[in-house]
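hi! just following up on the protien thing from before. the input was this:
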Amino acid sequence: MQKETITILGCGWLGLPLAKALIKEGYAVKGSTRREENLEQLRDAGIEPYLVEVDREVNGEEIADFLQSDILVINIPPERRDDIIEYHIAQFSSLIDALGQSQVRSVLFVSSTSVYASLNREVTEEDAGTPESLAGEALLLVEEMLMQERGFQTTVVRFGGLVGYDRSPEKYLGGMKEISNPDQPMNLIHQDDCVKIISEIIRLQQWGEVFNACSPVHPSRKEYYSKAAAVSGITLPPVGASDEPAPFKLVNSDKLVNALQYTFMHPDLPV
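and the predicted 3d structure came back as:
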């Protein structure tokens, strides 16, 4: 039996390895990039490549064909700009209009744990509502827009801090003057787990859900960077004072673990 066609909007740091993994599993995959020079890279990976820009209007000569898929994975994080809330809503209003003309019936939206405030406790999917950043506000509003649509079912995955490969702590240690907020726990997830989790949601058809996706181990900033420094041989920057505990949140992913029967590939970071 032929598997579904999957379109990935945004084949960058996460979208490209996801596309490769899905192709290995037998899916036909379409993928987008904003840069013409990246089209050949997508083609070489076995992805049907498209040049797509999601501005206040969805731009692309072949957008209708791009969205002729069974499943759409949306992986376009909010841009850093002062009007990000207005702009991100406009982007997704345009995208939703385009989806209304397509055959897509299942959408997976890559979101972030930035939708949670630092409540100084464990947070679950129900605790979103008071983001501390404009990007978090924009993501939460877009989540709601997608979940309210009736023409397709949306599953939202809120990933913790993305790490792995070229996003390793060693890359940042050299430029750090000190380890600030050393006792603050971290919410992280490895790229390998991100790819596997999305693949499992698609395989198990877990649509209409909101999931946290974050490693179950929450090292303090001091523990995390100390381990990274020891592994890499880089000198650990001075550890900042911790007289006043920094606000924190511990992202709980039990709902996802139970729904997917998922075991994290990299529960203890860094690796």
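The radius of gyration is 19 Å.
Residues 171 and 228 are 10 Å apart (CA to CA).
cheers
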